[in-house]
Specification:
7 helices; globular
């Protein structure tokens, strides 16, 4: 049965509303990046800034402020970064790390799906997010190691713990891959949120 036009899902599918929500989340992530930098948390400041840069790619590439990722993707990326920054009980530091890394892979997957002609089968879409998550954890581990060496931090405590980080990242990446396949490829409608002529190759 069709839903009435006044329901929330119809509202957030609007191009300008989706873009407005997206820009609000970008502004929030930018504030988190600045706050983390001022507090001396350079790694997470850089991480939040990198998420902002990825989020701005569609608008910059199309030179149109209304071309923005689905707001749900940015919300998924913003929540664990906020949890890591505040070190809340809801999202502890390490859990937030895994979720943030998976969110990065999810952003890349959604951008490829929504704004390019790239096509992925169901199994490859899940595999892509998983592999991207693991690869990002690897790069993140190198960044943490360099921070330990040159900035005197103590992020990497042992090789054993690092291996469990990869195991956890694989599990979280799998969940993110299934989420991408089920929601962003099958449920969420991206086309109504974009200006005419954008992402025609979908």
């Amino acid at each position: 049965m069709s839903r009435p036009a006044g329901t929330l899902d119809r509202i957030v599918e609007d191009e300008r509303i989706n873009a407005g929500l997206g820009w609000a989340l970008v502004a929030f992530l930018s504030l988190v990046a600045v706050a983390s930098f001022l507090l001396g948390n350079l790694l997470w400041a850089g991480f939040a800034a990198f998420v902002v840069a990825l989020a701005l790619i569609p608008a910059a590439a199309n030179r149109d402020w209304s071309v923005m990722l689905p707001w749900e993707v940015l919300a998924l990326a913003a929540f664990p970064i906020l949890g890591r920054t505040l070190s809340t009980m809801v999202a502890t530091s390490r859990v937030a790390t895994y979720l943030s890394v998976a969110a990065l892979a999810l952003i890349v997957a959604v951008e490829l799906h929504a704004f390019t002609s790239v096509r992925m089968t169901a199994w490859f879409a899940v595999l892509f997010v998983v592999v991207a998550t693991i690869a990002t954890v690897g790069a993140w581990s190198v960044v943490q190691w360099l921070s330990d060496v040159y900035l005197g931090t103590a992020f990497l405590h042992s090789e054993h713990r690092l291996m469990w980080d990869f195991v956890a990242a694989t599990v979280v990446g799998g969940v993110a891959g299934v989420l991408f396949e089920w929601y962003f490829r099958r449920v969420a409608r991206v086309a109504p949120r974009l200006p005419d002529g954008v992402g025609d190759g979908r």
